[in-house]
Amino acid sequence: MICPKRTAELITLHLAPFKDTDPAWEIGVSKIAGRGIFATRDLKRGDVIFRDSPLLIGPAARGEDTLNSCSVCFKMLPDTKFMCRQGCGLPVCSLCGKKQQHKSDCELFKSWKPSEPDVANSLLIRLLCVGRAIKLAKEQRDLVYCLQANLDNNHRTEVRNAAKGFMEFPTDKKLIEIMNRTVAVLRTNGFDETADRTNDNQEFPHRALYPLFAIMNHDCIPNSYYTFEEKTRNMVVRASVDIPAGSEITTTYTKLFTGNIARHLFLKMKKGFTCKCPRCSDPTEKGAFVSALYCRDTNCTGLAVPEITGLPHPNWNCLVCKQKSTHAQMVKAQDFASGAISSKFNSKSLKSVILYLRDKSASFIPDSNYAVIDAKLQVIARLAKRREDCGDDEVTAKAKFCEDILEIMDKLGLGDCLMRTYLETEKAKEVK
After folding, report:
1. Average pLDDT estimate for 148-163
2. Statement: residue 127 has pLDDT above 70
3. Is 19 exposed, middle or buried (0-12, 13-18, 19+ CB in 10 A)?
4. Among 151, 182, 158, which residue's Cα sits nearest to residue 272?
5. b or e along 206-231 (b: 16 or more beta carbons within 10 Å of the residue's beta carbon)?
6. Dihedral (Cα; 11, 14, 19, 23), 10-degree rounding
7. What separation in angstroms does the CA of 122 have from each of 181, 250, 252?
8. Is the pLDDT of residue 167 over 70?
9. Helices (H), 298-367
10. pLDDT at 194 exceeding the cut of 80
11. Backbone angles phi, psi at 89, to 5 degrees
């Protein structure tokens, strides 16, 4: 593990522009994993813990409809004639084309000679965030190397594939190592186009590395949440609950309403660790029953939950009659319930979906189950946009669905966060 003291020194240099002379955080050795961030004083719910700025940032370029985003200001450009005329293979607006940032990017990419500089290539555009690491100052690059990087068998693939789009891509081992290491760091703790509200993330259509945030460890019930400042793209991290001095400050890498099994698999496969937080250690998920299904015994009204084994296919136990079921049996029940709900979205009006969730779905799947939560969130989002001409019943249902999900959040122990603000706001609209 890299020394927390050296990491803190480099982080302090990075955050110097914020001029925070009395930080509410410090870097220390974590019981969760490696290093972590800890509160230096008691923090109240809603307090700003720290601000962070991107050490690296670039276009995510994940979809064809985003390739015409300026590589400097990220504004969407006209569908035609948005590529740099200097032949670097990057999209850029007329204003940013004159800025030093683009001149530096353009010089770098032109030296590698893009094969088709007038064609928007997602692999080349995504590489920009990584390529910018080459021109970082020594202390900044040292900071990149201080951050966690999962050096698996795939971390070299991105650079190798992007290299095919250039005629004179560098072969210098040092440059290739810098880029490969940066890819590994970004994949481990970077941002890469987040837009999923159920992950409690503010929409962020870029690829970026926020160094202090990257040191934060995961908890399935985090005690902080973050937002981004629109103009600067700086991150602001706030306390979601009261945090005593000395406590570790955590974030979450997973969706808030994913069940235990799916969260375990995601964290193991994508992040390389097994979470042992209180939620993951409790088959009932603190009484929220997000994973729960009905017992397979038709004479029993109890809930069945998966055993905490760390295995991808655990057995399930009924909390009332203690009947044990195989994972395959319970997955079949979950798939049936999820499919029934999805079919309503696919073939019926929103009013029919609401009636189904309100009056029928509870007969075969608990209201606390993640599939029901997801369906209710979809209904809330569609009603919020007023896509359907809904009457009083639908408006009442929207407020009730918000209340249902907020109750589950309370059981989980989730404090302030974007999801809570969103649900409370939508609920308030309907109870005035």
Report:
1. 89
2. yes
3. exposed
4. 151
5. bbbbbbbbbbbbbbbbbbbbbebeee
6. -20
7. 20, 33, 28
8. yes
9. 327-347, 350-359
10. no
11. 85, 15
Burial of 90 (0-12, 13-18, 19+ CB in 10 A): buried
Residue whose C-alpha is closest to residue 224's, from 423, 431, 415: 415
| CA quadruple 262, 266, 269, 275: dihedral, nearest 10 | -90
Amino acid at 38: F
Structure tokens at 333: 């029940």
Residue carrying structure tokens 């450009």: 77
Mean of pLDDT over the chain: 91
* CB-CB neighbours of 356 under 10 Å: 17
User: How much is the pLDDT for 154?
Assistant: 83
What is the b/e burial string over 187-203, where b = at least 16 CB atoms within 10 angstroms of the residue's CB?
A: bbbbbebeeebebbbee
pLDDT digit string, tens, across residues 252-308: 988 999 999 999 999 888 788 889 999 999 999 999 999 999 999 989 999 999 999
CA contacts within 13 A on the Cβ side of 357? 33
What 8-state DSSP symbol labels residue 93?
-
Which two tokens mark 123?
A: 């692999």
Tell me the per-residue pLDDT of 207-221, one tens digit each, with 9 for 90 and over.
999 999 999 999 999
For the full predicted model, state whether its pTM sits above 0.85.
yes
- Model confidence at 140, pLDDT cuts 50, 70, 90, reads very high
Nearest residue to 422 via CA among 367, 381, 392, 365: 381
Residue 404's SS3 state is helix
